[in-house]
Every structure is written in structure tokens, then in C-alpha cells.
Amino acid sequence: MLFEVRCPGCGQLGWCPCAACVEALEAPEPASVPGADSVALLFSHSGVGREFIHALKYRGERAIARWLGDSLALTHLGLIAMESVDTVTWAPTTAAHRRSRGFDQAETLARAAAKALQVRPARLLRRIGSAAQSGTGRSARLSGPRFSGRSSAVGRRVLLVDDVLTTGATLAAAAAALEGAGAAAVHVAACARRGRDRVPAGA
């Protein structure tokens, strides 16, 4: 059975995403993540970029997930001059979000990026507590979620993947947990950079 594939940016049938929408992506604002050895970002969480993220996060579109995963892998490799990682992991979402969406978008991205890098994905983090970051103000976001790292992180060079970076608190907490669990290096890659003053309620 054949399924229609449409660009999540413009709705054009036939390719996901189309070249015109890729060209229309806005460059992300600079960002740093405490504890990360590098930070790779693809685009700004605005315009077409926002549509790409929503297609992944709320509609679970596989074609854009594959493209985003491939792009994260390539951007990461370009940023660190081909330094190798030996695994890809993710900052897990809350159990409530996973139940409502039917999947964890960060895990989906991590598995796609791992396939592109030809390494194995691994669940190296456990989320502590159930509070979500989405829809909260900046002060609440800065406090961040909490994670614990698994013992299988020891000695690994990890690429830590997420869909959106806003304040960086989630990825900083995840990086700290990985380092605390013994990871040799933690590189961060996120699809979209959301500006600090552009956090929509309920996003």
C-alpha cells in the first residue's frame, strides 16, 4: 500500500520536506548547554521550522522524523570535525506525554540519528518526576527536570538528542546526569532553537 507523503511546511505532495521549505528554514539563535562538549542546532522554532517540529511531535510523521534525524547526525559531525560518538541517547519526555502522543519524539529522533551515524541508540537516562517543561514560563523552565544516568553510560561518547532547545535546562540536566554516570563525552544535538522571549503557552 502506498501512502501520500506531503511536506509538513507547505503541504506539497511528493517529498518530505520539499527543497523550498528547507531553504526557508531560519537560522537558530546561538545557544550553549552547560556540561556539553558541543551543541548542534538545525533551525529556529519559527515559520517552517515550527511546522516541522509539530509534524513530528503532534502528528508523528515518520518521513520528517527520518529527515530530522539524518540532519542532526550530519550537523553534529560537521560541528565536531568527525569526532566519533559510540551511542545516541535522548532526554525522555514525561510518561503523560508519551501516553497521550503514543511515542517519545526525542527517542524517535535519537533512533533516526543513530541509524544515520551507524551506531546503536541506548536508553541511558531515566526521568525523575512527572512535571513537563512545555507550556511553562522561563523561570520554571530554568529549574529544569531531573534525570538519573544509567550505569551503561560509563566510558561512552554520547550524542544527546532532543527536539527543541529553549533555555537549555532540560539538556543541561540530562548532560549532567550522563556525566555523573561516567560518560566520557556528551555532545548535544537539537532540531529547533526556540527564542527565550517566544515561548507560546501550551506549546
CATH C-level name: Alpha Beta
- Strand order across the biggest sheet? 1-7-6-2-3
> Major beta sheet, specifics?
5 strands, parallel
Q: Mean pLDDT score, rounded?
A: 87
Question: Would you write up a description of this structure?
Answer:
Residues 197-203 have low confidence and may be disordered. 35% of the residues lie in helices and 19% in strands. It has one domain: Rossmann fold (3-Layer(aba) Sandwich), CATH 3.40.50. The longest helix has 18 residues, at 62-79. With 203 residues, the chain is of the alpha/beta class. The chain has seven helices and seven strands. Helix 3 (62-79) packs across helix 5 (105-117).
